[in-house]
Automatic annotation (TrEMBL):
The chain crosses the membrane at residues 12-32, 38-54, 74-94, 141-159, 166-185, 191-215, 244-262, 274-302, 314-334, 367-386, 398-417, 423-442, 449-467. This is Uncharacterized protein. Coiled coil: none annotated. Keywords: Membrane, Transmembrane, Transmembrane helix. It comes from Candidatus Moduliflexus flocculans. The lineage of its organism: Bacteria, Candidatus Moduliflexota, Candidatus Moduliflexia, Candidatus Moduliflexales, Candidatus Moduliflexaceae.
Amino acid sequence: MSFQRMNRPHLQLLVTISVAYLFLPNCLFFAMYLRWDVAILFFFILLLGGKRFFFMPGQSLRFPPIHDVRKKPFLFMLIVLCFLMLLSGIGGYGSQDGDWQKHNAMLSALIRHQWPVAYSLTLPSAQSSLQQPLSVANVPLVYYIAYYLPAAVIGKLFGWFWANQALFLWTFFGGCLAIGWFQALSQQAGYLPAVIFCVFSGLDAIGISVIRFVFLGESPGMAHWIHIERWAGNWEYPSHITSIFWAPHQGICAWIITGLLVNELVYAESKRRVLFFLSLTALWSPFVMLGAMPYIIGELFWDTDSMRKKMADYVSMPNLCGVLLLAICGIFYLSKSYPSPLPFVPVEQGLIFSSPVVPGLSVGETLFLLVLFCMLEYGIYALLIHQSHLPFNARERRLFLISVGVLTLLPFFRYGFWNDLAMRASLPALFLLAVFLTRALYYSATRKSIRLLIVVSLLIGAINVAVEIKRHLADISASGQWYRLPSPGALYDIRQAGVSTSFFTQYIGSAESPFFQFLAKPLVPSEEILPRETK
């Protein structure tokens, strides 16, 4: 391929802004959640880790060639992204899907409560009777909250309406960075990469058609033509548009960190910032962080250099700071494992054959769906990329093989009620798969038949995107409102009035954990709630 080299300052600007985007919520968390002395220490760690990056930029960038950025394709990218977001429900624009009840409640909690957010639970005393007093226990919010923090600060200053506008702009800005990375990694900056980014999806339309035929019109689980991505029941690999509509915090974090890691692992002179970059994602999404880790592990163990030389390549002050940041986030999340006033509700987990999302399927039926899922969600794309004979260098080929490996292994394990591990940890690998597919489409030596099959596959995948857009347009039309300010809601009554322990315990930890005993500011609950029994 003959490409002009991307203007180096443009690439450095993309890298710098991307790090700053992931960096800002971490700063807010340390400033508002930690005791002042601990916060100062970790601010020092953050600045120490980012010093060489922010104040000595561009020393290790060796990115591949790419067409120069052009104004019209970039403007087209912004218009397409803006159109999708105006349908998505973000900030109240368009129509909100089911997950937005949680997003709105999380943002509202961060606005209304003092940080660290905590609730006061009124509980019966041990062996209580009606005449005995009630005990009060404090439970802190423990969740990946980075996405909401900048908008929550705006909400504390100016109110709920402006918090939603800030969330819209924050998400739009992150989406621009994501598409910028997609264009850079695919080595193209024209109109087509932006379109491919938006329409990339598994072949869900074929999947739901096949299983409705096999299961005589019935589909396992929740698959239907209003939202077809759950066609396999036990698994879902989301399209880019689905991530924007349902879980933008997961998608944006995954797309940006994938771009940063690819730049470091494949095109940079050293790996001295890899762990620092990875640590910035811990408060955004632990699932995305897990999905990104195989690329670092693969680079570490796959290379033919001696282990001593490879380890020396990672030894640096930014990476050490990254390890410390990962540790503090790990201690924060470990608060969930300590005793809590509410009864612990185990997380659904295990091998998919023994702990399925959809019960009642035989082993044979589950295996059939698994094979079909893998083939339609990524297998056909991977085969087409392989047959295009892209001129990968050794590290790029490694990225491709790791991506296929991750997407193959994830469906065998379940974690979370909806199998969140497979849905979210797959995002970096799916992003890279779309990148390589775009490269294959542009590669001049790709046979016409392969190029035609890529286009046909993308068009079939785009049916899912059309279904998502149609659902949102239909809801907007039915309501007669394009903008509806969301109801704030509360985490403990999303499903129904009162505290459902089976739902609420997903979002809380223990005040007795080391994080809240030794590192965090004192808990000051601003809301009293009374739990009810789980039905």
